[in-house]
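Let's do one together. I've listed all components of the complex below, 522 residues spread over two lines.
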Amino acid sequence: MATTSALGGAPRKVYAMICDAGRLADAYLRPGSSSFLDFLSDHSPELLPGAGGNLAQPTSETLSPHATTIVALAFDGGVVMAGDRRATSGHMIASRDIEKVFAADDYCAIGISGSAGMGVELAKLFTLELEHYEKIEGSPLSLDGKANRLATLLRSHLPLALQGFVVVPMLAGFDLSRGVGRIFSYDPTGGRYEEHEHHGTGSGSVFARGALKKLWRPGLTASDAVRVAIESLFDAADDDAATGGPDPVRRIWPVVATVTAEGYRRVPEDELAEIVEVLVAQRRQGGRQA
Amino acid sequence: MNMPFYVSPEQLMKDRADFARKGIARGRSVVVLSCNDGILFATENPSRALHKISEIYDRIAFAAVGKYNEFENLRVAGVRYADLRGYSYCRLDVTARGLANAYAQTLGTVFTTESKPLEVELAVAEVGFTPDDDQIYRLSYDGSVADEQGHVVMGGQADALGTRLAEGWQAGLTLSEAIRLATRTLGAVGGDGLLEPGSERNLTPDGLEVALLERARPRRAFRRLQGEALLG
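Okay, and this is what the predicted structure of the assembly comes out as:
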């Protein structure tokens, strides 16, 4: 059988073993946990978000742009998460088309508000953490396991939060064992809170949550829930300068995703455009002023 | 008192190679072949939990024969290697070639420096966007690497099955043709040696572990095929 062995038989195409990568370091071969975060902290801590030493002084928040409002709401058979597209730096708009809602895996979405750079990095690391666990263990984490993992990740970020780089994520996922959509909110210390029906975080969340309270009702369908999410962000953008509303000029819409038993689905742009059009037409009716 | 006596390097290496080869030939074979829909991996494996075929990264998968604990360790190392590389650079920068090199170095070092070589043989495959871009690397216990064109068989009666597979393989197979070819190849091993073409054992989906790196799938291309999907 040793057709390719260096010792017996005729090799078909044997490469000389010259490579710069070298052999796998011992850390790779050491038995350990299924967590990518643990591996990274152990093997390459310099790659962790926020590595590079503590800053001496609490820093100004303008060092990193600020990502704002995220909302999530449950409906019959799943959950919707939506985020506006604005990032601000003080009084300036840092980005009009930043994305703050991501697919963490097939059955959950993560949204980030707070320090944008750190938040996006945190979402990336969390996504990888879930994928890594799934590949090593051969099966995915439970939704509660994912929610707890995010809390741990956030807790390790606490020193940076104290420096002013606060990240407040939100997790919305479909619980395969119970067959329902669930929402988890967090505080910067890693506190994990399960929310019922709907929730919002970020600077515009006060207004978004007011809207959600009035618009949410039991038994919403997925498309109703998408409409409610967009409307609540619309209200947030109406009153909060740091939240961006739908932009029909550049055709920039909020990022909206549903998570159901069928998995994560990002609502396509043309569907969003239609919903926004109807919403704007409704609000225009009767020449409203306030 | 025992006197240390001289053993020539040739003899030493040969003994180690024989030892590793024996261990690898004991198990069931793994078949890897490229087809229109992607790269197919198949092996006889009654266990649903202890896999011989696994996902490494977006478009890269891993198959192994030999000692489970040894290749499991290498598999985990490969996942860590790929995830760390993708995290620190970009997901596109994780390649089968890089991983195969790292595995080759590891296997080679163990073969020459440790008291016992690893009794494993690995295949690392990366599905391309066209069948021409598919890459299949086969790694032996001593760290040698072969760049296989289109198909490979490892473990068990690899040589004989390799010839069978090569006869049936051609570029442009559909997925169901590839599954049939793979199961026919695996079924050619009977209780006492090789069976004649046409009289292969009929393998049921229950005893098979089959996975596909699906070409058209965005991001994570790896998926396991079970039950009816295997009846083709």
